[in-house]
Amino acid sequence: MNIFLIVAGTLSAIAAILHLGCIYFGAPWYRFFGAGEQMAQLAAQGNIQPTLITLAIFIVLATWSLYAFSAAGLILKLPLVRLVLILITTIYLVRGIAGFVLISSPMGRSPEFWGWSSVICLSLGVIHLIGVKQQWHSL
């Protein structure tokens, strides 16, 4: 078992669950987590768009969690696990770096959102990278 991939999978699962919380609790959670005032207002109005977007993010994060758990040996081996983990790691790292660039033009989100989410994504990317490197031979 690979502790880094277990941590990576757990953190992705927590992020996925928090996205479900945004759907359930609505506008206050969208605001708290920095989704932007437009998303919060749409959620408050009962518009389906925030739910669909957030549900898609939940599905992606939950899938990423399963792939990390698969590579760690906690669940059955999923198809293309090596390729998928490379993509997941790359996306987390690129998103983390890109967020620091977007602080200066936040696109409807606060600079704090971009800063915190970038630190989180970079951390997840590094944790994935270490776990993938350690587990590479068995992927």
Characterization of the model:
This protein is an all-alpha fold. It has one domain. 78% of the residues lie in helices and 0% in strands. It is built from 6 helices and no strands. α5 packs antiparallel against α6. It comes from Pseudoalteromonas haloplanktis (Alteromonas haloplanktis). Keywords: Membrane, Transmembrane, Transmembrane helix. This is DUF1761 domain-containing protein.
Along the chain, the helix and strand elements come as HHHHHH
Mean pLDDT: 95
Helix content: over 70%
Largest sheet: none
- What is the general shape? globular
Tally of individual domains: 1
Ends apart, CA distance between termini: 12 Å
Q: What's the gist of this structure?
A:
The mean pLDDT is 95. The protein has helices spanning 3-25, 27-32, 37-44, 49-72, 81-102, 111-135.
What key attributes describe this structure?
transmembrane helix, 78% helix, membrane, mainly alpha, 139 residues, transmembrane, single chain
Topology:
Elements: H1 3-25, H2 27-32, H3 37-44, H4 49-72, H5 81-102, H6 111-135
Helix pairs in contact: 1-4, 1-6, 4-5, 5-6
